[in-house]
Amino acid sequence: MPRPLWAGAISFGLVTIPVKIVSATEDHDVHFHRVHLADMGRVRTRKVCEVDGEVVSQDEIGKGYEIAKDQTVAVTDEELEQMPLPTAKAIEIAAFVDADSIDPVRISDSYYLAADGQVAAKPYTLLRKALERSSKVAVAKFAWHGRERLGLLRIREGAIVLHSMKWPDEVRNPQELAPREVEVGEEEIKQALQLAERMTIADLSGFHDEYREALENIIAAKAEGKPLPAPAEDEGKEKGEVVDLMAALNASVKAAKESRGEDGENATVHEMRPSKKTAKTPAKKTASSKKSTASKKTAAKKRSAS
Known about the structure:
Elements: E1 6-12, E2 15-23, E3 35-36, E4 41-42, E5 63-68, E6 71-75, H1 77-81, E7 90-98, E8 107-115, H2 121-134, E9 136-144, E10 147-156, E11 159-165, H3 186-198, H4 210-223, H5 245-259, H6 281-305
Parallel strand pairs: 1-7
Antiparallel strand pairs: 1-2, 2-8, 3-4, 5-6, 7-9, 8-11, 9-10, 10-11
Helix pairs in contact: 3-5
């Protein structure tokens, strides 16, 4: 069990459930140090006061808010902890909503809620079963890291999960990013749906971080003084090449069928531009035709000789 990040309680009406928050995810990224390339010494960040130019220690640093130019007020951690906020040490359930009504773009970090002690076992199980049977999720408010947050409670494999959420006014409107209206044919939509169906999988457990693996291979090669791995060849289409949308969809459906061991012969594929790899095909045909012509001449000489 990872170290708890927060301890408090879920407030569910008059029911109180003591819980501890633990992170639901792990960081597997490769982390680099900043170094001086001349001698590989570590480069540290120094915290310097802009007024006197002195380096200050961590216990001399506090929080300040600029209320006007050249006017800043200090706010201490004790003052933040004593704010009259009901969610200071509680995850207060405010409502229940249908799971499908939550926009995924609003969901941020995820945490597991562990029952804190035997006294929490029964109310924890009660809330879990209520969420499971109702097919709903709970919307809650809680204070953490100096601000009040909106949260989402749902069930994952018997455990209550807390998702930190963005407030409604923190989500940008995407309308200005949408492309202008274009005409999309019904046949193109059907092919896109067929491709999506062919690419549907049961779970995501087969995915892994190929970038991290490649980075680890580079680090291992440098540590052992070996040549770096060869870069992967770019098998994509040339930049600027225009591909017929319908032809690309048909080819993608056929490839998806073949990758699953299905017969791809029935997939309709439009003729696409030949790539550089297919440019040698006419030369092969020419060589074949020359060989055939030579064979015919040899056969004719044998007949005339006999």
